[in-house]
Design brief:
Blueprint (H helix, E strand, L loop, with lengths): L5 H25 L2 H7 E9 L14 H5 L1 H8 L6 E10 L2 E11 L6 E13 L2 E9 L1 H8 L2
Parallel strand pairs: 1-5
Antiparallel strand pairs: 2-3, 3-4, 4-5
């Protein structure tokens, strides 16, 4: 394989995507909203099923709006009872898919939620341009409902 072959180009593109996603995950785990704002593109294709009873789930389109989602979630959940595990991390070109489980306890109700998730991200030029999260929204809504 030569440096200019399609496989080398695809490999380096996948490596760049993986590095961007790793930076995103590191910033998210650290609660570093400033760094997440830098990693998200100015305009983001954001998908997370709207749920009127869940205060941190709402439409977002800008990198700054997307970056604060995790901080908003932290406001409403109990940190020591919340988390996620990633058991699958697939990369193909600019696309990455992470799958795993997430859980948490809603501060206002004391109720817990948990379930599987899949997160599809697209990274272009070192920035996240797509963030589509699929999760157990029914469990989260039930935990937010008094």
């Amino acid at each position: 394989m030569t440096a200019n072959s399609p496989s080398a180009t695809t490999g380096s593109l996948a490596d760049a995507t993986r590095a961007t996603v790793q930076e995103f995950l590191t910033a998210r785990l650290a609660g570093d909203v400033t760094r997440m704002t830098e990693i998200f593109a100015d305009d983001v294709d954001w998908l997370l099923a709207e749920n009127p009873v869940v205060p941190w789930i709402r439409p977002r389109t800008t990198g700054a709006e997307c970056a604060v989602q995790s901080a908003e979630m932290a406001e409403y959940t109990v940190a020591e009872n919340s988390g996620a595990t990633v058991d699958t991390f697939l990369v193909d070109g600019t696309d990455a898919v992470l799958m795993g489980r997430l859980w948490g306890t809603v501060r206002a109700t004391g109720k817990s939620f948990e379930g599987p998730f899949a997160l599809r991200l697209t990274a272009e030029n070192g920035r996240i341009t797509r963030h589509h999260l699929y999760e157990n929204s029914l469990s989260i809504a039930a935990a937010c409902t008094p």
